[in-house]
Structure formats: structure tokens, C-alpha cells
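Q: I'm writing a short explainer about Response regulator for a general audience and would like to include a description of its predicted shape. Could you first generate the structure from this sequence?
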Amino acid sequence: MELNPLFLLIEDNLIDQLVTKQLLKKILSIEQVTIANNGKEGIQWLNNNNIRNKQPLIILLDIQMPIMNGFEFLKEFHKLNKKTKKRVQIYVLSSTLDSDEIRQIEENKYVTDFLNKPFPIEELKNKLLLYEKLL
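A: Of course. Here's the predicted structure. Afterward I'll give you a sentence or two in plain language.
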């Protein structure tokens, strides 16, 4: 990708972390994926890196996690400065079938899209290419 976005995977499951990271590397040629084990670590990473990183950021966000889940992360994300939020796309990765959770995800203004697990790498690739064309 020409934009060379940063990737932040917020996921507590070690197997999902490994599989997602390998798929991003193999299919999208993404060399570096930062991993946060829960929403709290994700917010901390954003707070620590938002000044020096001006490039686009793709967040892959799990919903069910200990310490701070995906919905709590989205509430904290809302509090971040506009400059940080403007360069971020959030893709929720979840295997939920709960209609209330799906509705919450779809109605959240910060969520770019909802992707079902297992991780649909080709679907994400197509969405990112479309986004790149819009810029």
C-alpha cells in the first residue's frame, strides 16, 4: 500500500494475534504490527505515539477482552484529540452473534467496519484499497 499505514492489533488471544500478524505480513506485506493485549494497552499506545506518528493508523479491535474490552476502548478513544482520531480507521474483529453487540458496533461512529472472525484478510485488503483510492 502506498500510504504505508501503521497497524495496531488490540487482541487478547495469542493464537489470533499470531495468525492475524502472519496474514497481514503475507497478504499485505505489512512488516510491523503493534500488538496490545487489551483496550487499556491500546489507549496507552495511542497516547504514547500520537505526536510523532502522522501516518494513517489501522486498528484491528477485538471486543471480548479482559481489563478493557472493545466497547470500553471505543469510549476512551472518543476522548482522544481530533487530530489523532482523524488518521485512524478501526475495524472490529469479532465472532459475536449477539444482535445488541453487532448493533453497537455498527452504530459507533469511530468504527470503519465490522469483520467476522476468523480474520477475513482479503476482505480487509479490498476495503483498504478502496479507502486509499478515496484519499
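A: For your explainer, you could say: The mean pLDDT is 84.
Q: Perfect, that's easy to follow.
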